[in-house]
Amino acid sequence: MTELHTSRLVLRPARPDDAPCFALGVSDFAVARWLTPLPFPFTLAMASDWLRGAPAGTSEKAMFIIELPGRGLIGGIALAEELGFWVARPHWGKGFATEAARAVIDWHFASGTGSHISASAQHDNSISLRVKSRLGFEQVGQEMRFSHALQHNVQHILTRLTRERWMQQEGRACA
Q: In what residue span(s) does the N-acetyltransferase domain sit (predicted)?
C-alpha cells in the first residue's frame, strides 16, 4: 500500500503494533463522541480487529495511520464510502486533520477514477465541518445516524467534494 508524506506527517498503512495507540486515541470520549460508527468503549481487541480489516489501499478505499515523526501515531484517516478522520486530543488545533485529508484527497484524485468524495459529520461537530469546508466540501444533505458513543441518533451533515472543484481550487488543470 501507498505511504503518503506531507510537510509534517506520514500517512502509512496500519500495522498490528498500532492497536494499543489506536485504541487509546479513539477510546477518549472527547474523540469517540464524534466517531458515530465506532463502538464505544473501543477496546484493544476491537482495535486489533479493526486494523486487521483495514482496506488494502486502493485509491477508492484505503485507511492510513496518521503519524507524526518522532511522536508516533496521532490519528487515522480512511476513504471508503466516505472520507473520515480522527486526531488524538493532545494534537487538536494544529491543522493535522486538514493536512492529512489534503494528502489523501490529492492521492485519490491523482490515482483514481472517482468523480467525487463524500463525507459527513455530526451537525454540531463544527471543527470537522470547518475542515471539510476548508477543503472545498459542499453540503448536499442531512440524515440521522446512530452514534454508539452517545447511544442515540444524531443529525449528520452530508458533504461532497467533486474532482472538478478540487482541481479548480488547487489551481490544477482538470484531467
A: 9-164
